């Protein structure tokens, strides 16, 4: 995915120093101006666009926006492989439903996750609340339910956990450190954990899952340290129009988990 026009122009200043030779080696821009000659806006803009296109050709110059690798679907089902506990067993699936609500500064996205065993009985139930803004998407809250859907407790993250950004260059890293306050139903809020979250942008990749084959997907590595949210290393693939289609995760205690997208519902 190419950078937006504005991002390209901003990148030009930084890359001029390190890439002057590469840019100078090419032909001059299409519109040349002499001293005192009026410059037409269309010609100046064309020059900027040409320079922005040249920047795209410089290795490492591409910046990825998380919004270009999402979806507007309301329901997704994933096939699960690996260690998901004895309650879920083998042959389990995970159903994710999405509720999107406009809020000040962006969109609140609530993702409800129900894991079901091979007999379609719910074996695990949580929900995650995210805030999506023009610059990033972050995790603000996690709810825990019993298998009947009764809320048990809520984790609130302060500050929110940074998940992805709108300016992820290949090879770049981003991260956050958050306190976690747990509030049981009819209980007292307690600051009981922290989440150290670090992400690395690996670039674009192709991936095949049950739902189909995808190309040009954003591939991210995430490392997390948390007593309540897990200690793991994860690689995820996010594809345009589908969102996350695959996740491969290794837990610190040695367990492994794989999510593969099976179906999408508009």
If you had to describe this structure to a student in words, what would you say it looks like?
With 266 residues, the protein is of the alpha+beta class. It folds into two domains: 5-61, no CATH class; 66-265, YmcC-like fold, CATH 2.40.360. Helices cover 15% and strands 54% of the residues. It is built from three helices and 14 strands. It has helices at residues 5-24, 41-56, 85-88; strands at 63-64, 75-82, 93-103, 106-116, 122-132, 136-145, 151-165, 168-169, 173-184, 190-209, 212-225, 232-239, 243-251, 256-265. It has a twelve-stranded antiparallel barrel with strand order 2-3-4-5-6-7-9-10-11-12-13-14. A two-stranded antiparallel ribbon has the order 1-8. Strand 9 and strand 10 (190-209) form a beta hairpin. Helix 1 (5-24) packs across helix 2. It is elongated. The model is unreliable at 1-6 and 8-25 (pLDDT under 50).
CATH architectural category of the largest domain: Beta Barrel
Radius of gyration using CA atoms only: 22 Å
Biggest pleated-sheet summary: 12 strands, antiparallel, barrel
Unreliable runs: 1-6, 8-25
For this structure, the CATH topology of the largest domain is YmcC-like fold
- Total domains: 2
Instruction: Please report the first level of CATH classification, the CATH class of the largest domain.
Output: Mainly Beta
Strand % is over 45%
Give the class from helix and strand content and strand pairing. alpha+beta
Mean pLDDT: 87
Name the overall outline. elongated
- Oligomeric organization of the protein chains: single chain
Ends distance: 24 Å
Sheet with most strands: strand arrangement: 2-3-4-5-6-7-9-10-11-12-13-14
Counted beta strands: 14
